């Protein structure tokens, strides 16, 4: 094979790889859209949408995790938490509703302020979605003064 044909072949293969990557990325379902299509929204607040669900919160979290794998998952006092690129999804009781899905946009909600830090490292504000940073601490004291 001539050198020109090898360059042409490598260009075609590179283009095919880019197309496959784009198709693969677009085929990954958006969890917010899935929840909006699948569950009935009953309220919208300044920082979240709330949806009715049925069954145990852990089962609903399993179903959502099967649709799109979360970056982190934790549970606390009967509520399941799933962290995605741009969203925190909390599944648990809300008032007299035994199963509610709360979808909170990480960029708008209390996430950046560390509201979910108690859930562990995957929910720390310095997570991949660009929270408020996660410094090593040590803001005062010591012989050198404040850092």
From TrEMBL:
<feature type="region of interest" description="Disordered">
    <location>
        <begin position="127"/>
        <end position="147"/>
    </location>
</feature>
<feature type="compositionally biased region" description="Gly residues">
    <location>
        <begin position="128"/>
        <end position="147"/>
    </location>
</feature>
<dbReference type="InterPro" id="IPR025341">
    <property type="entry name" value="DUF4247"/>
</dbReference>
<protein>
    <recommendedName>
        <fullName>DUF4247 domain-containing protein</fullName>
    </recommendedName>
</protein>
<dbReference type="Pfam" id="PF14042">
    <property type="entry name" value="DUF4247"/>
</dbReference>
<keyword id="KW-0732">Signal</keyword>
<feature type="signal peptide">
    <location>
        <begin position="1"/>
        <end position="27"/>
    </location>
</feature>
């Amino acid at each position: 094979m001539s050198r020109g044909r090898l360059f042409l072949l490598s260009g075609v293969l590179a283009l095919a790889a880019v197309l496959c990557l784009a198709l693969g990325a677009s085929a990954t379902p958006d969890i917010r859209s899935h929840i909006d299509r699948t569950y009935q929204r009953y309220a919208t607040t300044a920082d979240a949408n709330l949806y009715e669900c049925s069954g145990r919160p852990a089962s609903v979290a399993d179903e959502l995790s099967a649709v799109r794998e979360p970056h982190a998952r934790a549970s606390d006092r009967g509520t399941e938490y799933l962290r995605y690129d741009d969203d925190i999804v909390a599944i648990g009781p809300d008032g007299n509703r035994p199963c509610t899905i709360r979808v909170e946009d990480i960029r708008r909600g209390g996430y950046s302020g560390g509201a979910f830090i108690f859930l562990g490292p995957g929910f720390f504000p310095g997570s991949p979605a660009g929270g408020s940073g996660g410094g090593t601490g040590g803001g005062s004291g010591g012989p050198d003064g404040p850092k």
